[in-house]
What we know:
The complex is a heterodimer of chains A (about 425) and B (about 80).
Chain A: E1 8-16, H1 23-31, E2 38-39, E3 52-53, H2 66-69, H3 74-89, E4 100-106, H4 111-124, H5 133-137, H6 141-150, E5 155-157, H7 165-178, E6 184-191, H8 196-204, E7 234-242, H9 243-248, E8 255-264, H10 277-290, E9 297-301, H11 308-322, E10 330-332, H12 335-338, H13 345-359, E11 361-362, E12 378-379, E13 384-385, E14 395-402, E15 406-413
Helix pairs in contact in A: 3-6, 7-13, 10-11
Chain B: H1 5-20, H2 41-55, H3 61-64, H4 70-81
Helix pairs in contact in B: 1-2, 1-4
Amino acid sequence: MGTAPTRVVVTGLGAITPLGTDVPGTWQAMLAGQSGVRAITDEWAQRLPCQIAAWAAADPATLIDRVQARRLDRCEMFALIAAREAWADAGAPEVDPERLGVAVASGIGGVGSTLAAYDTLKEKGWQRLSPYTVPMLMPNGSAGWISIELGAQAGAHTTVSACASGAEAIGYAVDMIRSGRADVVVAGGTEAAILELNIGAFAAMRALSLRNDDPERASRPFDKGRDGFVLGEGAGIVVLESEQHATARGARVYAVAAGAGYSSDAHHIAQPEPNGTGARLAIGRALANAGVTADQVVHVNAHATSTPAGDLVEAQAIGAALGPRAGEVVVSSTKSMTGHLLGGAGAVESVAAILALHHRTAPPTINLDDPEDDLPVEIAVKPTGLQPRGEGPMAVINNSFGFGGANVAVVFTEP
Amino acid sequence: MAMSQQEILAGLGEIIDEIAGVPADEVTPEKTFVDDLDIDSLSMVEIAVAAQDKFGVEIPDDQLKDLKTVQDVISYVERASA
């Protein structure tokens, strides 16, 4: 008889999103079906076809010490704000520093700092670059800053897989605990890329919604009228902990971080594989990794970004992975409200999935006025109660897919 | 245009408050940057660049490393701007 594998539980949640500056504010706005999408009023937007985005609910610099804010990229501020909330929510546990880790992702890193520094370089010369320029633009800056603040010495890691980065970081953190490298890991993702370059570049791919005249209705996953995603920004963080460590300190447990599954499309650098094979494989592998059956799954927080191709492929993949009773699974795309947070998406949506499980209520998918025909799953258009469908604890899945063909699914179950 | 030591100290206090978050009234001549004011080498670079802008005095890297106390900077700026 071998020892039972280490179970990993979620004991803290943090987020700053277009819907709120913290988890309660974000969750409340989600249940109310609010949109965080706004018109971009900066003059640079006038040069671009897309003029809408989902800004975070507050300027993060107003929530960070003034001196520290000078040294942080906006994405690092988001990560630190969410990490502080998650850590406090977990009860600020006493942890051996060598057993405390960080896994915080970003899809792009400090691109705002990169662009600003390049302007400074060209206009004023290298001497005027902040000596903090490199730590501001490197994608692992957020993980590094969080590790410094918490004194985490087990490792500070950054997974990069475009829009799957945040979910991959959570999977990495689960593995850190299972493999015995850490007892507690602060994990998630962050992004701050609402900038002329990024909007322009995504527009060049024809990936963005151009519904400039109706921002709040622009992000409409699974709706026939969808025309692309809306760029959002913010961060989500979870505190993951070995069950033994959490139990020993009497921690409140939201959910079990039961497992993660991965695949790569090996098809196209930026388009989904049309049969959804990669997505289906990732979901199936996540269930196997978690030891969960398809019938335990009651809710999926879909990647669904509101692009014409991606949403349909994902719905088919969920249907294929969850089998004949997939129609009973409640699927939501919270991107309909938050926009697409890129490297922050998988983390914020994992937080939403965990809360859905915790409160037994799936958040709605807004703007779904005219759903695609023959979807193999039910899309929640209003807050929807979750009930067990079979044997075993209820499970929820967060799907996250990224350019490069990265597919990640993370499974959470009731404690 | 020569500045008094008091003027340089006041200007330096503003810079250090802005960059390192140390209140200007704690920036007194005898304080060391590293041990007393908890200012790291990266922030010292920022302070030196800001001091150049404010006082019109260039502080080369090989001089900067020898400026250990607030008084060292005051004396350097006073000498260089005389």
